[in-house]
């Protein structure tokens, strides 16, 4: 049995982390201690205690625990559990722990509805993906969602020490584990307690003369402990954090999230997000950001990793430290709202691409005024359809570039 499974906590006090839901007086702890277990969904990354807590709940509530995994179970497996529910003459019923519920299709999830609704089966489902996107709404409406968070280094370290001492006793060998090696593992496991314990076990298996030092820990700690799935929540969370850090003019945070994206090798997402930021958040406050960022992106794509990190970092810092304006973003959003609402109307006659007037035409001639024939290359005439002729989409931003453009606009309109 893997070390992580052999030392799995048996009580809530032994669970590492999750104090926000399992600490004294916190909601999940109160539910467990009360003994009246509702249907629940545990949401969080791997190795942070979801299965452990489900086991503790089953033991403390005197329920018979069944386990299924969404990656391998079928509707027949679910029906088999349902069929067996009448054969239990002890305990308080069945607790079904369904791991990775997001892999079950809608029909499979629906097969549980009748039985969790009438209380014949209590469901605890876990998922590493956002349940509001991946779990059937009818299941969600009958369940309480609890989010499990990655465990901090300070909480993981005692768990690793405990694992080492237990493994040392089980193996009957005199191992010595450097403190800095344990700290490296605690930091490098990315909040995944199980991964950290597995690394401790691997170090003990490969130790030379019972000595486990930092060098060995560095060699055996997985290089990328960062949770990242290009089709999952972590992908969008990191991109969101990156984008918002640049928008918020925090170049240090932006570089941190950029480094995480680089570690994941996600060149395409980085380039796409940088190009978007240049127009969405910097915009007309510094229009040259667009061609500069495009040049950095082109350089990165031509260089490839690891050198690509340099132009990508340059573009990130440029955008984070540049003046900001979302005026064009807001303007096109307003225009799209009108179009989507059908608030359009016919083109003004003088803008139409025609010079033929039929017999029924109320006004003969196109009567278009060519702006270049007038002073300052400007002449007052209507461009929007009649029903929205006074609509204003674009508001000049309060930055230097757009204010200069506003002054020029007022000047040519004789409004200065």
What key attributes describe this structure?
single chain, 416 residues, alpha/beta, five-stranded parallel β-sheet, 20 helices, flat
Structural class: alpha/beta
The side-by-side strand order for the widest beta sheet comes to 2-3-4-1-5
**Main beta sheet:** 5 strands, parallel
Q: What's the average pLDDT? A: 84
Number of strands: 7
Uncertain runs with pLDDT below 50, 5 residues or more? none
* Mass-distribution shape: flat
What does this structure look like?
The chain contains 20 helices and seven strands. It is an alpha/beta fold and 416 residues long. Helices cover 49% and strands 7% of the residues. It has a five-stranded parallel beta sheet, sandwiched between helices.
Please outline the helices and strands.
Blueprint: H1 3-6, H2 19-22, H3 27-34, E1 40-43, H4 50-60, E2 64-69, H5 75-84, E3 94-99, H6 106-110, H7 113-117, E4 121-127, H8 131-134, H9 137-141, E5 144-147, H10 153-171, E6 176-177, H11 179-188, H12 193-206, E7 211-212, H13 214-220, H14 233-247, H15 251-263, H16 267-282, H17 289-303, H18 309-321, H19 327-340, H20 400-412
Parallel strand pairs: 1-4, 1-5, 2-3, 3-4, 6-7
Helix pairs in contact: 10-11, 10-12, 11-12, 11-13, 14-15, 14-16, 15-18, 16-17, 16-18, 17-18
Compact overview of the structure:
This protein has 416 residues and is α/β, with parallel strands linked by helices.
